[in-house]
Amino acid sequence: MSTDRVAVERILDAVRRRAGLAVVDQAPLAGGMVADVRRLTLADGRTVVCKAAFGEQAHLDIEATMVRHLHAAHPRVVPEVIYADPELLVQTFMSGSHLTDAAATSLGEELAILHGRHADAFGFDGPTLNGWFLLPNGWSGDWVPFFRDQRLRYCADAAVANGTLHAGFRARVETLCERLGERLCEPTAPTLLHGDLWSANILADGDKITALLDPSVVYGHPELDLSHVVGQPYADAVFESYRRFHPIEKDFFELRAPVYQVYTAIMHVLYFGSRYEGWLDETLTRSGV
């Protein structure tokens, strides 16, 4: 029996023993940076998605908490969690393929719905994830200090610690942090964010969005989500649709989107190393440091 087959059998056995689900067929799915991802056909006819990651560093229970929170806010485009523990997550299968320009208007509408949910403070009740990386939260009365300390500084320090971010870039990030109150603004209310809206986490069927996957949930400024759309070929249609429900300040695109993209670029450097230093340099330069 091959090693791959042994791994699959271990996953299917965990689904049977822990989740109590009988599997009659399975197939691998793309998107396995954090965990092995498979589409399972169950004996009762349901099709589900299973994520599995074994070991002490597995945090699929935290991912399940985020998915449950988003599902409660927008069940039409967010999977329902069927079973979760740190090593195993089973959720409903969401059909569709990767985002196309035709679904851009729909993305603006679905994102606007998600951004209609608010909290009394910024952050989240417990840690969350960006990919496999564990993010601290807690609650804050102000967004700018939260984003500065719990996202920019925290993630930059982690990237330095794992050897992917050079000291020169860390110094520039710190300069940005010191000036952050001049660059960012407080939103009207803490808004529920997906938090990691790159195109591979969005599924569509024709001109309709069918799923928002793999979130990095936080209550914050909606501009953080919108910054993931800036620069994409479908951006204009998304923003036009979104503006029918929520305003977007004009200076967001020039002044604040680059700052939020610094955070995304830091995460890419943390994951993938020096090949994303050029993007980080660009976002920092556009942020004025």
From TrEMBL:
InterPro entries reported for this sequence: Fructo-/Ketosamine-3-kinase, Kinase-like_dom_sf
Pfam family for this entry, one: Fructosamin_kin
GO molecular function (one): kinase activity
Keywords: Kinase, Transferase
Family the UniProt entry places it in: Belongs to the fructosamine kinase family.
The name this protein goes by in its record: Fructosamine-3-kinase
Provenance organism: Actinopolymorpha rutila
